[in-house]
Amino acid sequence: MSEQKKLIIVGDSAFAEVAYECFTHDSDYEVVAFAVERDYLTKSELFGKPVIVVEDVVGLYPPSEYEFYAALVYVQLNRLRTRLYKTFKSMGYRPASYVSSRAFVWRNVQLGEHVFIFEDNTVQPFCRIGDNVVLWSGNHIGHHSSIEKNCFIASHAVVSGFCTVGESSFVGVNATLSNNVTVGQDNWIGLGAVITRDTPPRTLYKGVQSVAADRSTFDYFKISE
What pTM was computed for the model? Predict the structure, then answer.
């Protein structure tokens, strides 16, 4: 059995809690601490592990002995996660990645560093996943597609074949990209959105909100009071 590697999780939010579970029970990492910026320190421990401030990390956990994962979501189009990822790299820490044992990632997929791939993702042959990318649960990344660095793909999105999702973009729950589509850098693709042609940079596509019918559920199903 290989020796466990030591890991610091950056953040203490819900994603940090999920990352702790995944690294602890489905990887060869041991989480030793959580780290947050001083202005956001609200607790002293999480899951029995210390929560320390970023400014104190190097003195307590030497970069030569510990790796890190910045467990932040898509705040400011992934800027917060990207900034802390770069901060810890500049301090000399090696970025860790997590790929669920229940994800399907084909053998020739190119994976960048500091990626987090949840369960039930399908990543088909000849895909490329850039640095600092999160694939939440249940996505389909079609063959020959590329997810550029600093992206976040929410659950059950479909990225068809030969697509590119531009740097720092967000793709929402149940969104669909048609074949041969390039999503511009810094896009926000809302939940359920359907993208069938290339998109320009810095564009927001809202999801479709269902409209309430003009009949109540009691009227429709003929339920008496």
Answer: 0.95
